[in-house]
Design brief:
Length: 91
Amino acid sequence: MAKATYDDKAIATNLLIDLKHLKALFNTFSQETSNESLYSEIDSLYEEISTMQRNLYDLMKKQGWYKMQAEEKTKISKAYTKLSNTVSKMK
């Protein structure tokens, strides 16, 4: 059986995905804790995960692995209108 190999970009991408999932889970966990002491502890861990995620994202951008591109104004306007309509329906 062939052994899978991963380059630095693939490892970083997988780690970023994992950190995003962990952050979401810890956010829910912190909001649903049973007491203030536990909340403080979990919230502290949430902040650490957030910092790790941001640092990895910054590293990936510097390496050219995570590229951002400007979107057309018309697409942004359409997305804004769609979101505004959705919010209006919720009221």
